[in-house]
Amino acid sequence: MPKILMLCGDFTEDYETMVPFQALSMLGYQVDAVCPDKKAGETVATAVHDFLGEQTYTELRGHNFALTADFDAVDVADYAGLFITGGRAPEYIRLNARVLEIVREFFAAEKPVAAICHGPQVLTAAGVLEGYTATAYPAVGPDITLAGGTYQEAGMDEAVVDRNLVTSPAWPGNTAICREFVKLLGAKIEI
After folding, report:
1. Is 117 annotated in the active site?
2. pLDDT tens, 112-142?
C-alpha cells in the first residue's frame, strides 16, 4: 500500500485535513498524519474557516483530528507523496527545522507534494518554491513571490500544478487538489 505523509498541526483547517485524509484513504493510500512533537493516537484541534461577512474568514473550533503516525519516526523514503494541510498550523509548524528538512527531501527526490490554503507557508519557509508557480489563500501570495516563486491567482475550487507540486487556495478546491495530487502519484481513476 503506497504511503502519503500528511503534515498538520493544531488549528489545521478542518475540511483541508479531513477531506484529503479520507479521500486518499478511500483510494487505498495509507495516510500518515503527523504533527511536530506529537505521536500516533494524539489529536490536533481543527478550525473551520468560513466567510460570514467580514473582510477575512472567521475561524470556528472544529473537531479533534487523530494523528496516525509519530512525527519523530518520519522517513521520507517510506512515502510516495506529501500533503500539507492549511489553516493556522502552517504558520507555526514551519518554525520546526525537521518539518523544513522533510519538505526539502520531498522536493530533492521530486516526489509529489500538495499544499492547500496556507500550506504553502511551509514551502516558502523551506525555500523550495524558486522557479515554481503556485497558488494559495490570497494572503499567502506575497510569501510565494518573496520566496522566488510565481503566485498564480486561481478560483477557490481550482488547483495549480507545476511539475511535482499541486496547490489550491482553499477547501472548496479539495476535489481539484486531490484529483491532481493522485495523478502526480500515478493513480488512474476511471469512472
Report:
1. yes
2. 999 999 999 999 999 999 999 999 999 999 9
State the average pLDDT over residues 94-108: 98
Contact 159, 179 (CB under 8 A): yes
The residue from 8, 35, 49, 118 that is catalytic is 118
2-30 average pLDDT score = 97
The Cβ of residue 125 has, within 10 Å, a number of other Cβ atoms equal to 20
Please indicate, yes or no, if residue 117 is contained in any of the structural domains.
yes
CB-CB neighbours of 146 under 10 Å: 11
- What confidence score (pLDDT) does residue 49 get? 80
- CATH number for the domain spanning 82: value is 3.40.50.880
Q: Three-state DSSP class for 28?
A: coil
Structural domains in the chain (count): 1
In a domain, 191, yes or no: no
> Comparing C-alpha atoms, which of 56, 5, 60 is closest to residue 32?
5
Check if 49 is active-site: no
Residue 140 within a domain: yes
Residue 143 neighbours by CB under 8 Å, 6+ apart: 120, 121, 124, 136
In a domain, 166, yes or no: yes
